[in-house]
Amino acid sequence: MSGRWHRWLYRGGRPNRVARIMNRAGAIGSATGLARHWVTLEVRGRRTGRAVSFPLVAADYQGQWYLVSMLGEDANWVRNVRAAGGRAVLRHGRRRQVALQEVEPALRPPIIRRYLRLAPGARPHIPVNRHAPLDDFERIADRVPVFRILR
């Protein structure tokens, strides 16, 4: 799929109807654990209190695992995780309670670069080439939330 298509799916930073349907299917598929980096994040909605599921790509870097927001600060899952104090459930073959700890911007660049190598669908949303030097990632790191997955 093209970058234009991916940007259309999330125009205005929110998933449109097609993206929501694809996300539901993706959440089911990623929860199975068949693909190494695909996970489903379940977190309480900050308004409804109901569990909300999001298919995401988990990036591994230096022995740790991370979730990166391709849509930046305004992604619903980011707001929900912050409102929940980092408490969430990850599904990847099985369900497990996790704590998500936000990574400070100075430490994000190599994690974001690793994430872009793993998540082709995120590339149109993050304005840095995945092969760029870390200096380029430093310029955008404060706009791309990253959370360390703690067990």
Automatic annotation (TrEMBL):
<dbReference type="InterPro" id="IPR012349">
    <property type="entry name" value="Split_barrel_FMN-bd"/>
</dbReference>
<protein>
    <submittedName>
        <fullName>Nitroreductase family deazaflavin-dependent oxidoreductase</fullName>
    </submittedName>
</protein>
<dbReference type="GO" id="GO:0016491">
    <property type="term" value="F:oxidoreductase activity"/>
</dbReference>
<dbReference type="InterPro" id="IPR004378">
    <property type="entry name" value="F420H2_quin_Rdtase"/>
</dbReference>
<dbReference type="Pfam" id="PF04075">
    <property type="entry name" value="F420H2_quin_red"/>
</dbReference>
